[in-house]
């Protein structure tokens, strides 16, 4: 029997298992130091693979739809941070100050790529525009996210954190491998296509290793002693509120500005989602090890919540599309 879309997927279950493992058996001493260096290499490999996967033809096919892309960028990098800051007096009491730092961090992250495109396809949206918009969001995030972190979270993270330093570190650890992978795509595309199933585990395994390393450092620093159970329950409410407002705002704006149904679907799924795959490595680069564990926890909760909600929403769009087509026949 097929698993319900409302249940966690295998990757989410693996994330939860990784958090439990880091909580009970955190990496310390020499092992922790080794994993810190290993995750740097793994993150570079992760973004190298993302660069190699990016199809230039698909991007060029959707790049001309500038109004749609502009709305997605505004939603991703302006609407979310504004929501996080404006709602802070109301939502922060539901969690701890450390967790709300993570909430604000997820608000300044780029959009997700794979799931945004997948849900757009299921719902019957503009696929070329979705590929272009989601990919552009990831690239823009390399430059915009560190700037927004310095504005929204000026006191968070490492004492050595600064805007130019953050951008430089992200360019060296993320952008450079991404560009290298994309330039080598003509030679790697065939291999990656033939081994897509196996490379998926490399992709996900990279994120799991970074999560384990970050949570290990946070647990050693007393993470769970600082996060009471009511705050974790409050985090569910905080993420639900922000996701609901983002979905509502993108839907309303798309209709208000006269976009087609297909474009509306693309705007909703690309403009309301946040990338776990980009966010976890960015947290490692921008924040110190002990802070990163608490900072990525809201992102992990938001990630699963957006998957469950958008799965239902995509099916609803698809059903309405079939009904509309049937009435026209």
TrEMBL record:
UniProtKB keywords: Membrane, Transmembrane, Transmembrane helix
Keyword flag Membrane: yes
Gene3D superfamilies linked to this entry: 1.20.1530.20
Coiled coil: none
Domain of life: Bacteria
Transmembrane stretches, start-end: 66-87, 99-122, 129-151, 163-184, 205-224, 230-254
Pfam families the UniProt entry points to: SBF_like (PF13593)
GO CC annotations, alphabetized: plasma membrane
InterPro entries according to UniProt: Na+/solute_symporter_sf, Put_Na-Bile_cotransptr
Protein name: Bile acid:sodium symporter
Organism from which the protein derives: Melaminivora suipulveris
Lineage: Bacteria, Pseudomonadati, Pseudomonadota, Betaproteobacteria, Burkholderiales
